């Protein structure tokens, strides 16, 4: 088999790419004769996996950019139409975060699905990742796409895919979608003008957020007790989208307003105060802790930039801060769920909890002692979500 030359790869890119910024990047590398960098950007196509796509934003078939987003959307829409019953009528849910290019990536995704004949359930403004899988299930959509790189560095972005059950995809779906992307790789349309005004596009923000918070409120049975608390706490969204959604959620639980870290409260795609915007990273909560210390507050909570990860720290008697691990938070949440289930007289046979195999054995021990059903899965929410769906179907 003849290997295509680097120059030919570059020419193919320029023949397909209509984004002036990424075109200029490839043209500049060609002009300077930087074949090594051209190889790096162009030779190996970006790989579609169970988490969708995630890569640095720059030119090239191996990176995330307008062209590769269009290709992914064309392939995904074709695969969904082929495999999901009544996919066109059920439609696709599309959302995006505040990162650089997320706005245009979401609209290019919508364009590809519209061209395939899909209805589009759209979140036109920035929002948290959980809104997309929730809307997929609520609206019985064929699939969903969230444009985000979660807590990755600022130069990255991603393309998360959710299937008709609201869970991220698992094998062999990823292989089928990847093959379809290759089959539909050449971009058909770059036109995003007037996307929101297309009659097949519906802004679902208000009804879906209302439904989401209504469902969440059902999880809390002691709102009146919460309303009487004198608790103070600091919150940071890590320069992400979480602040207004966290405020609404906590208010619906009857909790007092949080004290926000002002330097990190507003969405900022450059994440200027942290080197790595993951609240679980060492040092990421330093500003929140400093604010809490200054105001004699003993609790800090945080989301990652797309608000699908939660972290918490509690001040100790000696003035140090205890950062809760994911296992510890999981055990706390599980204990609360169990308490609420017992208060509601839910039979143990109807209560199930799931964690991944890399988690601690705390939940398994709780299940053995308390009598509810427990299962562990492979690592990743896609496995836990599918296991929970199977358990729900079993009653």
Plain-language structure description:
- With 395 residues, the protein is α/β, with parallel strands linked by helices.
- It folds into 3 domains: 73-203, Alpha-D-Glucose-1,6-Bisphosphate, Chain A, domain 3, CATH 3.40.120.10; 220-324, Alpha-D-Glucose-1,6-Bisphosphate, Chain A, domain 3; 346-393.
- The chain is 42% helix and 14% strand.
- It is built from 15 helices and 13 strands.
- The strands form 3 sheets. A 6-stranded mixed beta sheet has the order 1-5-4-2-3-6, sandwiched between helices. A 5-stranded mixed beta sheet has the order 8-7-9-10-11, covered by helices on one side.
- β2, α6 (102-116) and β3 (120-122) form a beta-alpha-beta unit.
- α7 packs across α9.
- The protein is globular, with a radius of gyration of 23 Å.
- The protein starts with 5 loop residues before the first helix and ends with a helix.
- The model has no long low-confidence stretch (mean pLDDT 94).
């Amino acid at each position: 088999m003849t290997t295509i030359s680097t120059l030919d790869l570059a020419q193919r890119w320029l023949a397909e790419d209509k984004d002036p910024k990424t075109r200029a990047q490839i043209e500049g590398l060609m002009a300077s004769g930087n074949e090594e960098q051209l190889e790096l950007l162009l030779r190996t196509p970006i790989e579609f996996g169970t988490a969708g796509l995630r890569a640095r934003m720059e030119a090239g078939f191996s990176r995330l950019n307008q062209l590769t987003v269009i290709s992914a959307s064309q392939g995904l829409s074709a695969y969904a139409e082929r495999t999901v019953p009544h996919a066109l009528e059920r439609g696709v849910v599309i959302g995006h975060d505040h990162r650089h290019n997320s706005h245009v990536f979401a609209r290019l995704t919508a364009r590809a699905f519209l061209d395939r004949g899909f209805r589009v359930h759209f979140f036109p403004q920035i929002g948290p990742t959980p809104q997309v899988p929730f809307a997929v299930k609520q609206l019985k959509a064929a699939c969903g796409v969230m444009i985000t790189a979660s807590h990755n560095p600022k130069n990255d972005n991603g393309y998360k895919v959710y299937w008709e059950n609201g869970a991220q995809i698992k094998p062999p779906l990823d292989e089928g979608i990847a093959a379809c992307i290759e089959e539909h790789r050449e971009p058909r349309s770059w036109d995003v003008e007037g996307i929101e005004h297309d009659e097949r596009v519906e802004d679902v923000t208000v009804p879906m957020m209302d439904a989401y918070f209504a469902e969440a409120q059902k999880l809390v049975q002691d709102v009146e007790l919460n309303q009487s608390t004198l608790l103070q706490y600091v919150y940071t969204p890590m320069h992400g989208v979480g602040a207004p959604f966290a405020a609404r959620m906590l208010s619906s639980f009857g909790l007092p307003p949080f004290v926000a870290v002002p330097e990190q409260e507003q969405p900022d795609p450059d994440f200027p105060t942290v080197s790595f915007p993951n609240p679980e990273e060492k040092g990421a909560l330093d500003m929140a802790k400093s604010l809490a210390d200054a105001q004699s507050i003993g609790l800090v909570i945080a989301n990652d930039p797309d608000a699908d990860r939660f972290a918490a720290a509690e001040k100790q008697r000696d003035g140090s801060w205890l950062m809760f691990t994911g296992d510890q938070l999981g055990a706390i949440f599980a204990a609360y769920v169990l308490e609420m289930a017992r208060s509601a007289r839910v039979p143990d046979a109807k209560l199930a909890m799931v964690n991944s195999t890399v988690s601690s054995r705390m939940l398994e021990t709780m299940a053995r002692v308390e009598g509810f059903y427990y299962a562990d899965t492979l690592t990743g929410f896609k496995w836990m979500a599918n296991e929970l769906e199977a358990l729900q179907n079993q009653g």
